[in-house]
């Protein structure tokens, strides 16, 4: 194994502990947060550990920026800054790729060519929005009165992002929040703070005023809770587990701040007998194993029609066994990297054992791979039933659960029998059936004869306990803005 040489800017960035970004300053704290490379179970870097006190300072910096040059900046100039930031991200995609490969473990070429590139596209899309945010003149019934509306930023937004897509999830939230004119306090996941801190430096470099983007890495129980409950924060946007989402809502009640949540999932993916099998099997495979199964939209419950189950299982097992798994910074690119941490690896392996104990059969993988790092062999399990733990709970790892079915109405009911509603989909060449699935499946995003597509222009979010609010598209602007009604007599 030969590792890639670090880009000189990445090497310099990792050479010494990075402080918090608050306003124009790098703020060092008395405690450091170890950043672990999950490919090797070794310390890759250190950053300052933010606390509730640092959140308070960051909120003050964001509030000052809101009433300062950022608050008076024209829509055109805001859009220009967003476009410049998009260009800077794409120009430095190698740096973002390496940072995400180091603290997340995902293959560097994926982090560089997918996550970083799509982050830049996200900022470019929202760079066009500031000049499109407009109110209305309303023909009211009161004589000699005029009524019109203004759409304004919410204010200071607290953004809390997960570790599975360190750069991309920041872009998803940050771009529309900035386009709407807000200022930001960002708490990235404690496991993956590197690219967020680098992005904050980049924002200053391209011309964002100090205090518009503040970044405070820290633990959810301290910095995260302080951000959710802070009286100076007007809106919280969160992506993460449903359990943590509930705590975010509880923390928001003090000042009744706006909240949007993108939470867990247990997506049902239905493979009908009339599907284009080559396309459906490949799509269903990557629906789960993309990003190593560490995605809220992973097609974790694959329902396969009984008549084709045997051949589908055989091909999926062959594909899983053929996957290359290795370090994110390996010079020979791999299909998958490690899971994020030792606790997550132990959790995933525990789910596999629970499945075995409840009667599921492992047909590929099923164990830790290697002794260094947090690698789980890509796992396919069949003979899974709806009541098994692995069919009910979100595993968030490379474990594909296969269930069989006989009838369309039956499988739709079973697909909807979950607390989650983030994503779902199916594979069929029957257009009428595809439209019935679109109508009956209960999820915020449905993929039919495809899986995993997203676009900055298309709304994304969940139903049921997968959260509320829609990121991306015009709906995302509404998450980060508020309407004022004005009467003139």
TrEMBL record:
Pfam families: Aldedh. Residues 31-486 form the Aldehyde dehydrogenase domain. GO terms for molecular function: aldehyde dehydrogenase [NAD(P)+] activity. InterPro entries: Ald_DH/histidinol_DH, Ald_DH_C, Ald_DH_CS_CYS, Ald_DH_CS_GLU, Ald_DH_N, Aldehyde_DH_dom. Transmembrane segments: none annotated. Gene3D superfamilies: Aldehyde Dehydrogenase, Chain A, domain 1 (3.40.605.10), Aldehyde Dehydrogenase, Chain A, domain 2 (3.40.309.10). Keywords: Oxidoreductase. The active site is at residue 262. Belongs to the aldehyde dehydrogenase family. This is Acyl-CoA reductase-like NAD-dependent aldehyde dehydrogenase. It comes from Yoonia ponticola.
